[in-house]
Structures are given as C-alpha cells and as structure tokens.
Amino acid sequence: MERISKAVLAYSGGLDTSIILKWLQDQYHCEVVTFTADIGQGEELEPAREKAKALGVREVFIEDLREEFVRDYVFPMFRANALYEGEYLLGTAIARPLIARHLVRIAQETGADAISHGATGKGNDQVRFELNAYALNPQIRIIAPWREWDLNSRERLVAYAREHGIPVETRKDGGADYSMDANMLHISYEGGELEDPWTAPEESVWRWTASPREAPEESQTLELTFAAGDPVAIDGEVLSPGKMLMALNELGARHGIGRADLVENRYVGMKNRGCYETPGGTILLKAHRAIESITLDREVAHLKDELMPRYASLVYNGYWFAPERTVLQRMIDESQTNVNGIVRLELYKGNVIVRGRCSSTDSLFDESVVTFEDDQGAYDQGDADGFIKLNALRLRIAGRKGRL
User: Fold this and answer.
1) 225 near 172, Cβ under 8 Å?
2) Structure confidence by residue, pLDDT tens digits, 200-209
3) How far apart are CA 96 and CA 104, in angstroms?
4) In a 10 Å sphere around its CB, with 0-12 CB exposed, 13-18 middle and 19+ buried, how is residue 286 labelled?
5) Strand ranges (DSSP E) for 131-270?
6) The CATH number, out of the four listed (3.90.1260.10, 3.30.70.380, 3.40.718.10, 3.40.50.300), of the domain defined by the range 187-358
7) DSSP characters over 121-146
C-alpha cells in the first residue's frame, strides 16, 4: 500500500462508502476525513455524520451545495440543451465535477494526502471524479477501492457490512438494493433485474414520479420566464436556481414526467442499462428549446445543435474542467444573451406540451413576414425564384452530366 496519512472520502453513508471508510482505515491505516455534499438527494444527512463518527472520523464535512450545483453546473449545461446519445439528461455526470472540486478543496484545507471515492472500476464515475480532480490538483493522490479490493459484488458488500456491524439498506428478499444516485436533477437506478435490458422495471422502482397512468386527470398550465437562457420565474414568481429546479421537480413528478429507461454507451467501453427520473429537467429542456426557437438566429441555433452532442459527451465523460468544454461554454453563454421571454407549458400524464412562447424584447419571429394574409410588401415572393435557381445550379449541372 502507498503510504497515506490522511484521505478525504466522498461519503454518503450508504453501502459502498460506509464500507470504504472502514476499509481505508484498515488497509491504509490512515485518518479519514468525510465529505458529504447536499445536492438535493432528498435524504437526511445527519445519519451520515453519526455513522462517520461511530467509525472514528474526527473531521466530518457536510455542506449544502444545492444552489451552487444548479447555478454553476445544471443551468450552464441546460443552456447547451445537452442530451447524451439523444436521451440521457446527464443527471449523475453533472454532479461529479462539483463533488471533485470540493474534495480537492477539503484535502487542501485539512492537509490530506489523498481523496477517495466509491465509484466502481466498471463505471463512468471513476473517470469523472478523477479527471476533474487531476485538472484541479495535478498532484492529488486518488484511492479507488473498487479497483483494489476483492469485494466485487453487491452481495459481498452486504456480507462485509454485516460482519463489521455497518447497517445498510436491502431489498425485502435480503439482497442488495439497486445502485442509486440522486441529486436535485435526477435519480438513477442500476443493477439487480435492471441488468437485463429485456426486463421492464417494476413500478416500485420509481421513487419520485407518479405513474403517468395514475397522474391527475386534469392538466396543469404554467408560464416559465427566461432571462439570458436561464429560468428565473414560474407564473411570475421569481425563484433562485435551486428553488426553481425543486419547483419544476415537484410539478413534473406530480404529472408523471421525466421517466427514462435506456441503454447507454459508457466511456469505459461497455453498454449499460439504467432507469432515470428527471422531472424538472425534462420540463426545462422542452421550455428552453421553445424560447430559443423565437430568440436565436437560425445559424446560431443550428450551430448549437451541431455542437451539442460533443458538449454532452464532454460532460458525460468527465471533462467539465477541460479547456474544450470551457471554450464551448463561452460560446454557448454568448448565444444566450437574447434568450429572454416566457414559455407557456401544459403538463399532462407524462407529457410536456408547449402552448405558447413570447419575447417582448428579443423575438426574431416577424408575423408581418410569415403571414399567409396580405404582407403589405414585407416579403417579395418573386425573390425566391433566383434563390432557388442559384441553389439548384450545381444539381442541374450534375444532372446534365448524368451524375445524379
């Protein structure tokens, strides 16, 4: 074992990290500092403090990062309309650079030699934590127990926990619970029967959202106000970023919005099946694209759409602090200067329906040009003749030469 005197552990108090805490003490004989980030996972965090203290931890950090998470990570990502592989709203991926930043900060503040995390050697999170940590502190040492120990199944972890008196959540049949990750943007589920992509998730899997079948029979309409690409008010009530996402989550969950069941391509090379609930994010993405549709120039909008998959991959793969992501972010943020206005939405049984969009100051929609009625000379339809012929020139030449 590499000699480590003190390590900062990303600690949730759950199965993996509770075992890691004990394992670090036993295997590295080091002092462990725990860091628990409150990013809206919806759990009581004080039990994590008590668990850590019971295992001899003297320095316990529990920090409320909810506003920072949404303001500095979630909202910038949604300005890009980021979707990984067309479906995944990146709820887990976007939280990792925030946690990595605070792990590195606390290591510096406490004089720790290393940081540690509970990500497995098969997953994406090990890459995300470590790439971001190395970007912030190139000399940081990282302990990834899943790449070292022989506790390579969730059943073995449960057995280890019972052996050392560590309480863990299990299913009714006594097996390990699903591998879950929750924050203000989403909750994810992996493992168990979900490892078979042919097996549909049981209704009991979903913890946030109502089943669309059981959602209210009456739809709900709301107006979402945007300023510089970010949502700032619901039905005229101004909300902070964190409270905004919480409110959208509550609305979406009530109406069965935001469930996803998908198979994604992990950065490490394998395919993985996961189920996700992202109610507020699903509403936000729909609304943001709606307000952009009337405020963004056509070519700027198309350029954003071309770059979005690259941006999403950078977030998914753990390159939040990489120069290419920050350069893309500056371009995206510049594009949002005039993305101001209101979107009217209807929520109904799993659906987010756009019912209207307006911007009194920045709309590029000109009714006098697009009208089917008399446009009073705002548009000369005869101009289209030359436009079409010039664009058809290369096609006509190729056609004459039998190339098409």
Assistant:
1) no
2) 999 999 999 9
3) 12
4) middle
5) 141-143, 179-182, 187-190, 220-227, 230-234, 237-238, 259-265
6) 3.90.1260.10
7) TTSSHHHHHHHHHHHH-TT-EEE-GG
| Distance (Å, whole) CA 261 – CA 273 | 8
Q: At CB < 8 A and 24+ separation, what contacts does 164-169 make?
A: 164/19, 164/22, 166/18, 166/19, 166/22, 166/51, 168/14, 168/15, 168/18, 169/14, 169/15
Q: Per-residue pLDDT tens for 292-349? A: 999 999 999 999 999 999 999 999 999 999 999 999 999 999 999 999 999 999 999 9
- The pLDDT value given to residue 375: 83
List the structure tokens of 133: 């940590």
- The domain at 6-66+92-178 falls in which architecture? 3-Layer(aba) Sandwich (3.40)
Q: Which of 184, 188, 208, 197 shows the shortest CA–CA distance to 84?
A: 188
232 vs 211: CA distance, rounded Å: 28
Q: Catalytic residue numbers? A: 16, 96, 125, 179
| pLDDT above 60 (res 175) | no
The sign of the dihedral angle between the CA atoms of 222, 226, 232, 237 is: negative
Q: Residues spanned by CATH 3.40.50.620 within the chain?
A: 6-66+92-178
- Counting Cβ atoms within 10 Å, is residue 380 exposed (0-12), middle (13-18) or buried (19+)? exposed
Which residue type occupies 3?
A: R
Question: Which residues, including other chains, have CB under 8 Å from residue 142's CB and lie 6 or more apart?
Answer: 114, 115, 116, 117, 129, 130, 133, 134
Cα dist. 131→3, 126, 320, 346 in Å?
A: 22, 8, 9, 40
Report DSSP state, residue 44.
-
Contacts with 120 (C-beta within 8 Å, 6 or more apart), sequence order: 126, 146
Q: How far apart are CA 103 and CA 292, in angstroms?
A: 36
Give the type of residue at 124. N
| CATH 3.90.1260.10 domain residues, the chain | 187-358
For residue 171, pLDDT over 60 is answered with: no
